[in-house]
Give the backbone structure.
Amino acid sequence: MIEFHGVTKAYENSTALRNLSFLIEKGEMVFITGPSGAGKSTMLKLMYMAERPDEGRIVINGTEIETLGDSDIPYLRRNIGVVFQDFRLLPRKTAFDNVALALRIRGMGESDIKPLVNETLKMVNLRHKTDSLPAALSGGEQQRVVIARAIVSEPAIVLADEPTGNLDPDTSSGIMRILKEINARGTTIVIATHNRELLKDTGRRILRLDGGNLLERGD
């Protein structure tokens, strides 16, 4: 499902990732952990092609991403949902419209969009907040809108970058419960986090990064 083969990524003054190789199987939930600056976010960016590797091969859902041109990237991303750390919700759009945006960009008709978005908001316990703007939502509610936006098109993969980074423990538990429910439906989930509490007793595989090096694959 997700394969890294000798992947290296460098920026002007530093090497973010060094010679990473691992495999994430279809339907897995995998955690990427390590201190700030370890390379967690860079790894996710490579997975959804916000960045390209300097060396090595990446295969996503059977596709060798180095063979893709820029015009092909949006089609790859249709099978990838991303939960951003900073939410990236449109402030003047309601919860419904934020979730519906990707479907509208793809040209889906409103008669199909409405039930799909409402059902997805119900899944994340926000059906009653359909018409609310982001400013009227708590941090946990905004994060659930982000998750709904990531999963509304039923992608094969969901990537979550610090999905509980600014949330209290109870809200964090609720977010993780939703992600586990999505995973139980067959979606591959990759979560980048430095929160050690999230990693306790998960029974899931953990990829540990430090300074761009993969210290532990957990496989």
In short: Residues 16 and 42 are 7 Å apart (CA to CA).
